[in-house]
What does this fold into?
Amino acid sequence: MPATIRVTALRLRRRFAAAIALPLLFGTLASCGYGSQAPKETRAEAKGEKLSADRVRLGYFPNLTHGTALVGDQEGFLQKELGGTRLDVSLFNAGPSAIEALNADSIDIGFIGPSPAINGYTKSKGGNLRIIGGAASGGVKLVVNPEKIKTLDDVKGKKIATPQLGNTQDVAFLHWAATKGWKVDSQSGQGDVSVVRTDNKVTPNAYQTGAIDGAWVPEPTASKLVSEGAKVLLDESALWPGKKFVITNIVVSQKFLKAHPDVVEAVLRGVVRTNDWINANPDKAKASANAKLKTITGKPLGADVIDAAWPSIQFVDDPLAATLKAQADHAVQAGLLEKPDLNGIYDLGPLNKVLKAEGKPAVADAGLGVK
It folds into this structure.
C-alpha cells in the first residue's frame, strides 16, 4: 500500500474512533445530568441473601453532617443489613442536585437537608419523595474574618457565603438576617448583607482571597475556614430550642418505597446501628468518617479541622420534624418558597418498626405523616 494511502487510512480510523468516543463521552456525562456536580459512584460488595431488589442506589454528600452515611458506608453497616442486595453510592455537592437525581430515578434513597426535601416535595405536589428518618442535627456555623467582623452587628454590609441558592444554610442565613431587621433580596443575594452563593469546595479559597468576609456553612467547611484564620461567630444550634435542629434527613422515592419496603427497612436498620456505633465510639467514628473522606477526595481532613468539627454534630435517628416545619416557614418568609402543604411528607412507619425492634422509643412526624 502506498505511504500516502496508509496515512490517509490511519487518519480515517482515528477520526472514526473519535467520532464514536465523543458521543459515548457526552452520553456518559448526560446520564449524570449535573455538570460539575456529576456524582461519583462507588459500589459495596454484596454478600448473603438478596432482598426484593438487586441493588439500592444511595446518594449522600462528602460533608461531616452526612457522617452517618460516611461511617455506615465505610464500616459496612449499611451493606451488612442489605445482605445480597448491592449498595451503589453516588456523591453530591448539594441538596438540589440530589433531589434532581431522585426525580430522574438516578438514586433511590438520599441523605439531604430539610430545605431541598421541602422544595422537592412541594414542587412535585407531594408525589416524588418521603422523609423516612433523620441522621444529624447541628454542625452549622457562621464563621467570619475577625479583622472585619467582631460582633454579629458587624455582619451588616459584608459578603457572606452560603453553599447554594435555596439550600438549608442559605435559608437559615436569610432568616437570621431578617431577624436582625436587614433587607436582602433572596434571589440576587443583594441588600444590607451580600449573600454570595459559593460551592463548599471553593469557599476556603474565596475566604483566603478576600472575595467573602465570612460564611454560614456546614462542617467541615466551617472548621476549614477556622484553620485559615476565621472565627466562629455563631453556632446555629444556639438559635433552636434544645439546641437541636435537623440538618440531614433520609428521603426515599415513593416508587422505591412502595416496591421495596424490605430494602428501605434494611437501610434504616443500618442507619440506626451506625448511629449507635458512632455515639458509642466517637473517636473511632471520627476516624472512620475521615477515612471515607480520604477515599472520596484523595485527602483526609487535618486533625485541627475534624477535631473542631465533629463535636458540634449530633447523630440522631429522629428527623426532628417540628424543626423542619419551622425551616419551611423560614423559607416562605425569605421569599424562596410559597406556603407549602407538607402533609404526607413523612412516612416514619418503617423507622419506628426498626426502632421498636431495637428497644428504642418511636419518633414523631409533627402531624405531617402519611394518613
Q: What stands out?
A: The radius of gyration is 22 Å. The longest strand covers residues 129-138. The chain has 14 helices and twelve strands. The longest helix spans residues 3-32.
